[in-house]
């Protein structure tokens, strides 16, 4: 059993606005200090959301990370006796939502765990030899679990973004507990989208989608289609704020992002050693911006920006150029990391080309060029290269290829 410390009471005293609707409360954990979430840069913190539904029967939706489960248990105990909890729903087996579930169930003696069959399989792998001791009920979309006035219904959402992912829907409240979908990594004192700056919340939602959900666009499209007929007044994700005012906006954005809709945006992504590649990047930028003020053209030095932000910008970009000097017959290592990350996220194809400087041996720009071919993006020209420092002719060529890329996108 867990041992509680007195300082956990401080967390309870500091929680405000826990009510989502009458008899449904927030009992999760706000992590103000986390800055790295398995390589996702969380500069604004994160939350691990859990919800308590009190009716004739009582249900908890999801657990939290292992190290914060004591807070979750205290939050539940502040609202209801722990031995009154009838159900714990596990929508997703990833450790940030299920890591604390074994400890949680220790403190909820009569609670039955509700999850789908794939979730049970994954929990069995995570909690070796323990799951068979739990009271587990495998649920499917055909099942309805009555709490009294309210009913829990379930929607399987495979690969959004794990194979066992599931939504839980409360039809009487038109409330969707959406697991990781529609989430954001942001710590806030308010629970709802209309209590925060909307552009900031939407930026966080876009970054979350770009870095986590992008590879599963087809599955997101299928889920959006399957859930299209559900009346939804409120969307309560597992991370970030709850959508109660701008839920239609986030649904529209998910439709666009999952369909690979692109904006008139070009990214000039590069690294540099002695500024030669930087000079080339600047000329490409100037060429692209000279074509039309309709275009959003951005310069991104990869060692002065983070992977998380680069991916968020890449999500809806129509064009991208990548530049690197040659180091030991290779591209610079930080750019190699960026390209590996982008490849895994499977963004919609962009118009692209490679550029870079070299000294006594080439190789960097050629590696980038091959990467563009390998992932099937539209290459608009051969690599633009210069030996040591670019002269006027090379800079003019860079400018012209920037113009060509902009014109390609505007078509």
Secondary-structure topology with pairs:
Elements: H1 8-14, E1 19-21, E2 24-26, E3 29-31, E4 36-37, E5 40-41, E6 46-48, E7 51-54, E8 58-61, H2 69-77, E9 85-89, H3 95-98, H4 101-107, E10 112-115, H5 117-126, E11 136-138, E12 144-146, E13 151-156, E14 166-170, E15 175-177, H6 198-213, H7 217-226, E16 234-236, H8 247-259, E17 265-270, H9 276-289, E18 296-301, H10 307-314, E19 319-323, H11 333-345, E20 351-358, H12 364-375, E21 378-379, E22 384-387, H13 392-410
Parallel strand pairs: 8-9, 9-10, 10-11, 15-16, 17-18, 17-19, 19-20, 20-21, 20-22
Antiparallel strand pairs: 1-2, 2-7, 3-6, 4-5, 7-8, 12-13, 13-14, 14-15
Helix pairs in contact: 1-2, 2-4, 6-8, 6-10, 7-8, 9-13, 10-11
Description of the structure:
35% of the residues lie in helices and 21% in strands. The chain is elongated. Helix 2 runs parallel beside helix 4, helix 6 (198-213) packs parallel to helix 8 (247-259) and helix 10 packs across helix 11. With 411 residues, it is α/β, with parallel strands linked by helices. It contains 13 helices and 22 strands. Strand 14 and strand 15 (175-177) form a beta hairpin. The strands form 5 sheets. The chain has a 7-stranded mixed sheet.
At a glance:
This protein is α/β, with parallel strands linked by helices.
Low-pLDDT stretches are 4-14
> Number of DSSP strands?
22
Q: If you average the pLDDT, what whole number results?
A: 92
What is the straight-line distance between the termini? 64 Å
Strand order of the largest sheet: 1-2-7-8-9-10-11
Main pleated-sheet profile: 7 strands, mixed
Specify Rg, calculated over alpha carbons.
Answer: 25 Å
Structural class: alpha/beta
Q: Which percent range describes the beta-strand content?
A: 15-25%
> How many H/I helices?
13
Shape verdict: elongated
Proportion in helices = 25-40%
């Amino acid at each position: 059993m867990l041992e509680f410390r007195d300082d956990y009471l401080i967390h309870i005293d500091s929680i405000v606005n826990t009510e989502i609707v009458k008899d449904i409360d927030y009992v999760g954990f706000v992590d103000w200090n986390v800055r790295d979430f398995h390589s996702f840069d969380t500069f604004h913190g994160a939350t691990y959301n859990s919800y308590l539904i009190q009716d004739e029967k009582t249900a908890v939706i999801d657990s939290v990370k292992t190290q914060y489960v004591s807070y979750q248990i205290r939050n539940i105990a502040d609202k209801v006796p722990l031995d009154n909890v009838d159900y714990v729903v596990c929508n997703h087996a990833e450790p940030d939502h299920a890591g604390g579930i074994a400890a949680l169930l220790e403190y909820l003696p009569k609670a039955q765990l509700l999850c789908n069959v794939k979730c049970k399989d994954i929990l069995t792998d995570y909690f070796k030899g323990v799951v068979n001791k739990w009271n587990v009920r495998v649920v499917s979309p055909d099942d309805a679990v009555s709490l009294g006035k309210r009913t829990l219904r379930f929607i399987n959402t495979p690969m959004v973004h794990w194979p066992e992912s599931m939504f839980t829907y409360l039809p009487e409240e038109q409330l969707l507990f959406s697991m990781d979908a529609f989430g954001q990594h942001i710590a806030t004192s308010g629970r709802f989208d209309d209590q925060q700056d909307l552009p900031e919340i939407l930026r966080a939602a876009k970054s979350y989608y770009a870095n986590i959900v992008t590879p599963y666009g087809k599955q997101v499209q299928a889920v959006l289609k399957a859930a299209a007929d559900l009346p939804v007044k409120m969307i309560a994700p597992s991370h970030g704020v709850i959508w109660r005012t701008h839920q239609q906006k986030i649904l529209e954005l998910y439709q666009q992002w999952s369909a690979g809709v692109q904006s008139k945006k070009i990214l000039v992504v590069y690294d540099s050693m002695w500024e030669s590649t930087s000079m080339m990047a600047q000329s490409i930028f100037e060429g692209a911006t000279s074509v039309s003020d309709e275009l959003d053209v951005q310069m991104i030095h990869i060692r002065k920006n983070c992977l998380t932000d680069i991916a968020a910008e890449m999500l809806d970009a129509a064009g991208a150029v990548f530049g690197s000097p040659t180091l030991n017959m290779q591209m610079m290592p930080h750019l190699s990391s960026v390209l590996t990350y982008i490849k895994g996220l499977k963004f919609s194809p962009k118009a692209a080309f490679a550029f870079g400087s070299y000294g006594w041996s080439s190789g960097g720009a050629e590696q980038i060029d091959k990467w563009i071919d390998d992932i099937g993006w539209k290459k608009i020209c051969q690599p633009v290269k210069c030996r040591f420092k670019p002269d006027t002719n090379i800079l003019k060529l860079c400018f012209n290829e920037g113009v060509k890329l902009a014109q390609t996108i505007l078509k």
